[in-house]
Amino acid sequence: MRIAKYPFAVLSAALFTVMLMTPISSLSNLIWLASVDMPVGLISSLEVILFDFQRLGIALFGVIIIGFTVAFTIAGLISKYSSLGGKYLYAVAGSVAIGVALVLMVELLFQTQLLGGNRTLIGKVLHWGAGFLGGYFYFKLISEEKNFTFIIRFLGIFYAYFLLGLVLNWVFTPIIAAADFGFVFNELTSDAQNALLRDFTSFFVATFLFSILGVITLNPVWFFSTGMIYIGAGVFNLVAIYAHGTGFNQIFIGEFVLGSWPIALGLVLYLKQKKTPE
């Protein structure tokens, strides 16, 4: 764990920074919409903030990982070969990494501001501040001894982060979510629409919450429960295809992946806890 904690600390700090950065752009866009008399309500604002965290956040996550890896490596070398060091060195490194990443995203990739919040000086400062806190968080993680549960928790959180996209689709944009599964929502009867919405929304919300509870409690039962639901969905998907002659689809592949991931986490937890003396 002495070596493994560093890459997972980078991943954790990057995800933490994404959580801080995406609301800056979301709120900036919402303020602009309100300024031009567009209707901005509580629910629509919440939808924008959450969707940006999940969708925009995934793209940012990859960029920040690269930036933090370079910045924290340099900070580590500076700390090792000079008198400089400590939490503020990594915090400044994180801030610089975000600043450079935002510039390069415009100049090399998109040729425009991907983040609405980065169009103003205060937005830039807030993004740098997010990087500063991300670097500080990284230092706190590497300064403490970690065991296997650190990795389990990150992988569980990242799994839940992925599921969050499915949850948001069914909660806020059910017609689009239904279309992804082959349903033409408006052509269904009202009873069928009700059944589709309640069952699928409950399905994804429940597994999302199970994975979060697994991360919090480190009880493998929560991970096993999540995995069994998706493995079951994959199995009965194949039964429907080959036993009942329904249309072939490849959704079962994703279902088996989504089932295997938490089951693997739960199995590692179970085996490690079993070896640990009472």
Automatic annotation (TrEMBL):
Would I find Electron transport among this entry's keywords? no
Q: Give TM regions.
A: 7-24, 58-82, 88-109, 121-139, 159-184, 196-216, 222-244, 251-271
Sorted alphabetically, which keywords does the UniProt record give?
Membrane, Transmembrane, Transmembrane helix
Can the keyword Repressor be found in this entry's annotation? no
Can you say what this protein is called?
Uncharacterized protein
Lineage of the native species? Bacteria, Pseudomonadati, Pseudomonadota, Gammaproteobacteria, SAR86 cluster
